[in-house]
Amino acid sequence: MTVSYKELLTKKEVRPYLLDARFGIEKEGHRVDMQGRLSKSSHPTVFGSRSFHPYIQTDFCESQTEAITPVFDHSSEPLNFMSALSDVITRSLEHEEMIWPLSMPPALPENEAEIQLADLEAEKDVRYRQGLADRYGKRKQMVSGIHYNFEFANSLLQSMFEQTNEADYKQFKTDVYMKLSRQYLRYMWILNYALGASPRADKCYFTEKDYPTEAVRSIRNSRFGYRNEPDVFVSYENLDKYYADLSSLVSAGKLSEMKEFYSSARLRGGERAEDLIESGVRYVEFRNFDLNPFVREGMDVDTARFVHLFALYLFYREEDEDNRDDNQRRGHLANDTITLEHPFEKTAYYDEGKAFFSEMRAFAQSVELSRQDIEIIERFEQLLDHPELTLAGQMETRLVENSEFAVDLARQYRGQAFERPFQLSGFTDMELSTQNLIFDAIQKGLELEILDEEDQMIALRYKNHEEIIQKGNMTSKDSMIAYSIMENKVVTKKLLNRAGLNTPSGREFSSFKEASKAYSIFEDQAIVVKPKSTNYGLGISIFHTPAKQEQYDQALEIAFKEDRQILVEEFVSGTEYRFFVLDGKTIAVLRRDPCNVIGDGQSTIAQLVEVKNQSSLRGLDHRYPLEKIQLGNTEKLMLEVQGYTIESILGKNVKVNLRENSNISTGGDSIDMTDAMPQSYKCIAEQAAEALDVKITGIDILIPELVEDGEYSIIEANFNPAMLFHLYPLTGQGQRVTMEVIKFLFPEVIE
């Protein structure tokens, strides 16, 4: 190559793509009981078969869960997904268990035969693990960590390639990763110095007699960790030598197969190491990261970003091309030295580290990295002068203070997962029904892609089967015309009436003048005025007693602000119920009570509201299953009509509504009625869905009295029925309707 990599990265044609890269994270962690003892239970069956699950697997032993993220275009995104995986795994544990937060395992049984190998379906996978146990002993396999999968984006590699006289892009890309890997192995000690987080281990872990009795930086990355035999050396001079060395080691019986090579920088070309020769190097798997116990994901955002900048600088940095294998050995020697230093000790490689960071900062400035990136680099450099602030240093401080440090952290992280079970960490910017659908999809092993976060549109895949879902339950199973029908309340009523189903009688109007002139038709009736198309109860006015002309006209104005056509219907008394119908069957029923308080004989209405708002299910801006009750003008007016103020003290068991409408979004209550609802009403909801030719819908029915074959009136059909209210009702058993939607869409995955 006539142009150096250093020169390539500074060319103006390359600079726009400098930070383009792709990232993935794999994290291991043991299941333990609430006292921190290694779990003896099997991998949770709720995750389905391990033969296809893309995100949740088992590593060496049955207790060692492995969480795997998809590949993303920004280093922070895998951590967001890992956060979601942490929620899914923890909430899905079938026993009262938690995930051990340290790289070094909890106390191991004295008899290692009690350590159960992963009970996998493929016999070859079990044989491979048994071979590892025979060669290294089971204890060495029990360490956990982070694998950081790194790939320069094609946009960056292609832009560099075009500035060279190279003819073979695959070879160019492979050469890029060979250099990156050589440099990484030479300077990985810097990462292990800063991020080593396995200062101590239970004595039952060690098989050596000379094991460290004092704290060190990283047992996992030291000679006491899980690594190949000392005589296993593979050259990274070029891909041919790398592959030839691996082949020789397998032939000599020093490795059972190529994937047993446990380098801190593993070259990846496909599923198998053998794919490298055919496809070239696609990405590099950096494998030397201890779990950071101070974050649930095992790695924080700044670290993920620093590794990206570190890799970019290593590629930029000039290397001694005449002594590549010797440089690699020097890197291993440096690593073996720093990993066994005391966490509070100044490293023996301090001067080399200071020089490295000085040059890295110069690189950052020359390519005009952001101030935020430069600050991250500077923070890592400062750790050379403050070893107590490295992860191992912080851990040793905490371990000295609290011997139960790891158990306490595990309990804390378990508590976080259950603190808001209706939210999914990593996806909290999406609406709640979608978050819960994503939870179920991940749990069952469907591949997930966020197509448009703002529009709540996702893709789920299993093999060649893909479904696009918007807002939790809008799918290709329903046609656009079905959505349009349900949005149009006039057409909905006509089709329901045609099917012989009861709806409130009324009239539609296209102008204020026309509707106002019709007042005489309704002047003696209780009525509802509403837009033809509406959501969340917007634009609806309800008159329990006949309205005066002025009040009627005001209601018309409110409705016409929401739509060009409105409906004036008879008011039908009764309790409102939401029926969730899926593929012709009612699978959940919810009673929706208007926003209300019930007196205790001592508290004011304002105090009763305050107490009710303390429910963990209530919050603001639709980020919780129920909305907090507000005491605004609407609520105060409603109280005034009934002869109350917010300072009124209600008698014991006296119930007062603060709103007319029963919408959950305005502070209403949700009560599950799935089992209590007579079958006749469920059949009515199913008939309504059939009349509208819709697979997923929410049918709202007013029922005066819950008796079999009693009176009813269908008041609305919803094309995107909120599922969260069924999942987490204020009272009663939650109904997992999101899982039922997934079963409907992917029957081949979920029975």
Q: Could you name the key traits of this structure?
A:
single chain; 751 residues; seven-stranded antiparallel β-sheet; five-stranded antiparallel β-sheet
Radius of gyration: 32 Å
Mean pLDDT: 93
Q: What is the helical fraction, as a range of percent? A: 25-40%
Largest sheet: 7 strands, antiparallel
Low-confidence stretches: none
Number of strands: 23
What can you see in these coordinates?
By secondary structure, this protein is α+β, with helices and mostly antiparallel strands. The chain has 24 helices and 23 strands. Strands 1, 2, 3, 4, 5, 6 and 7 form a 7-stranded antiparallel sheet that branches. Strands 21-16-15-22-23 form a 5-stranded antiparallel sheet. A hairpin with a 2-residue loop joins strand 9 (457-462) and strand 10. Helix 2 (77-92) packs across helix 13, helix 5 packs parallel to helix 9 (324-339) and helix 10 (350-366) runs antiparallel to helix 11 (371-382). It is elongated and about 100 Å long.
In a nutshell, what does this entry contain?
The chain is of the alpha+beta class and 751 residues long.
Note the topology.
Elements: H1 5-10, E1 21-33, E2 56-58, E3 64-68, H2 77-92, E4 97-99, H3 123-136, E5 146-152, H4 154-161, H5 169-195, H6 239-251, E6 265-268, H7 275-279, E7 283-289, H8 301-316, H9 324-339, H10 350-366, H11 371-382, H12 391-401, H13 405-419, H14 432-444, E8 447-452, E9 457-462, E10 465-470, H15 480-487, H16 489-498, E11 506-509, H17 512-517, H18 519-522, E12 527-531, E13 541-543, H19 549-560, E14 566-570, E15 575-582, E16 585-593, E17 596-598, H20 605-612, E18 618-619, E19 626-627, H21 633-641, E20 655-657, E21 669-672, H22 679-691, E22 696-703, E23 713-718, H23 724-727, H24 737-745
Parallel strand pairs: 18-19
Antiparallel strand pairs: 1-3, 1-4, 1-5, 2-3, 5-7, 6-7, 8-9, 9-10, 11-14, 12-13, 12-14, 15-16, 15-22, 16-21, 17-20, 22-23
